[in-house]
Write a structure and sequence with these properties.
InterPro entries: FAD-dep_OxRdtase_2_FAD-bd, FAD-oxidoreductase_2, FAD/NAD-bd_sf, Succ_DH/fumarate_Rdtase_cat_sf. This is FAD-dependent oxidoreductase. Pfam families: FAD_binding_2. GO terms for molecular function: oxidoreductase activity. The chain is elongated. The chain folds into 2 domains: 3-248 and 401-467, 3-Layer(bba) Sandwich (FAD/NAD(P)-binding domain), CATH 3.50.50.60; 251-395, Flavocytochrome C3, Chain A, domain 1. The chain is 34% helix and 23% strand. The protein contains 14 helices and 21 strands. Strands 1, 2, 3, 7, 8, 9, 10, 20 and 21 form a 9-stranded mixed sheet that branches. Strands 11, 13, 14, 15, 16, 17 and 18 form a 7-stranded mixed sheet that branches.
């Protein structure tokens, strides 16, 4: 349904200066930013309630040099953050793009807190792989559902129009300039809405099996843990308009989704000293490299299943996350006082699990590094009561997309901006490079918030200049 139609002779029912497609974090932030510039804004959301992939995430946004970090005594800077992003992605991302979002995201969070009352705080009791400073920021429940609820509340309070159950099925263009959109309602009726500028905030293509098979074949059969509406519309529209794309194989996976419950289990269970074993009770990788690349590794195990094993100390840290509390509430987190008893509950080989945990104890006591290259130096031992969660690997969202400039304007293959088209979040090329291993924790919401604010501001200013 991602069509481009000629605008010649088309009459629009009404026209709005800035139209935003998608009501996730990127779209809501873009709408707030455009509204602040005095532009009329309309958000078009295909669902009955704006949620997007944001609602399925932990809602954590990495940001350097914030006041919350300073209050916690955490030293950080945009330059340090940018270096971490580039190191994790092995130098693949465009340094200018990385610097752009690394510099923009901290001020964007403080703006959301000061102007719209979002009560951010920094996660200061554990670190994520690849981050050299503790810079993850979240709301009290540490859930994406709370983040999108509060953003939606801010948009409503600002008087910005949000049209739900409004599926954009076509763009009307005059050459490379977008003149409006076709909106299809649940009953099949359509209406045409004109726009001065269009912001694509409808994420990537994770929900489009054909595009996943083409660009990320290793996860073609994986559990998809993103929003089903992520059908690649922004990518397909952009390509049809002549936009440049980059790193289309880039994506975020996750190696710790409770199965069959389908609940995200925080990676703090690993970074704080937990391990993963397969159904044979044996470890199979360096889990500490990152949760994104771990998705495909878990899926290569027998039955595509692993067990995340940790202890009560780690569980207590994990309980700051609403998702983990839900997993405990439904009984997805097993508890036992000995490895043998834990193995019985897991229905795996008790001797193998006991031997695996004994080897971990030895490595931790010695501060050693295992055969997979994971260092256990400074890692606290696992002590009873033990915990375990049955997990699988999943695809969360794609990271490649449309190439944008410093104003989040979509560029063509020659590097020239398309006249009035902007992209943010998963619709734009992210900063993770072409591989799952390039994903640094939080990169998805990083570009949603940073590019969302940039796109909204720039689109509103451009429309204002054209009408003056």
């Amino acid at each position: 349904m991602s069509r481009i139609l000629p605008a010649d002779g088309v009459e629009f029912e009404f026209t709005v200066p800035v139209v935003v497609i998608g009501g996730g974090a990127a779209g809501m932030v873009a709408a707030l930013a455009a509204h602040e510039q005095g532009a009329g804004v309309l958000v078009l959301e295909r669902d009955a309630l704006p949620q997007g992939s944001t609602a399925l995430s932990a809602g954590l946004i990495p940001a350097p040099g914030t006041r919350w970090q300073r209050a916690a005594g955490i030293e950080d800077s945009p330059e340090r953050f940018a270096a971490d992003i580039i190191a994790k992605a092995k130098g693949e991302p465009d340094p200018a793009e990385v610097a752009r979002v690394a510099q923009a995201v901290g001020p964007a969070l403080e703006w959301l807190a000061d102007r719209y009352g979002l009560p951010f705080s920094v996660v200061d009791n554990f670190s994520y792989p690849g981050h050299s400073a503790r810079r993850m920021h979240g709301l009290p429940s540490r859930s994406g559902a709370e983040l999108i609820d509060r953003l939606r509340g801010a948009v409503e309070a600002a008087g910005i129009d949000v049209l739900c159950e409004a599926h954009v099925t076509a763009l009307y263009s005059d050459g490379a300039r977008v003149r409006g959109v076709e909106v299809t309602r649940p009953d099949g009726s359509t209406e045409r809405v004109g726009c001065g500028a269009l912001i694509l905030a409808c994420n990537g293509y994770g929900g489009n099996r054909a595009l996943v098979e083409r660009h990320v074949p290793e996860l073609a059969d994986a559990l998809y843990f993103g929003h089903p509406g992520n059908q690649g519309d922004a990518l397909l529209w952009g390509e049809a308009l002549g936009a440049a794309t980059r790193h289309l194989s880039g994506h975020q996976g996750h190696g710790s989704v409770a199965h069959p419950a389908g609940i995200l289990v925080t990676w703090a269970t690993i970074t704080e000293g937990g391990v993963q074993v397969n159904v044979e009770g044996r470890r199979f990788s360096n889990e500490a490299q990152g949760y994104s690349e771990q998705a495909a590794i878990v899926l290569r195990q027998p039955d595509g299943i692993a067990w995340t094993v940790f202890d009560e100390r780690i569980a207590d840290i994990a309980r700051q996350f609403e998702d983990f509390r839900q997993a405990e509430a439904i009984g997805a987190v097993l508890t036992a006082d000995t490895p043998v008893e834990l193995a019985r509950l897991m229905k795996i080989d008790a001797d193998a699990l006991a031997a695996t945990l004994a080897e971990i104890d030895r490595l931790k006591a010695a501060g050693g590094t295992d055969d997979f290259g994971r260092s256990f130096a400074g890692s606290a031992p696992l002590v009873p009561p033990y915990r375990a969660v049955r997990v699988t690997g999943a695809l969360f969202h794609t990271q490649g997309g449309l190439v944008v400039d410093d104003d989040a304007r979509v560029l063509d293959s020659q590097g020239t901006p398309l006249p009035n088209l902007h992209a943010a979040g998963g619709a734009a090329c992210g900063v993770s490079g072409s591989k799952a291993s390039g994903y640094l924790s939080g990169n998805g919401l990083l570009t949603a918030v940073a590019l969302g604010r940039i796109a909204g501001t720039a689109a509103a200013r451009a429309v204002k200049e054209e009408t003056q």
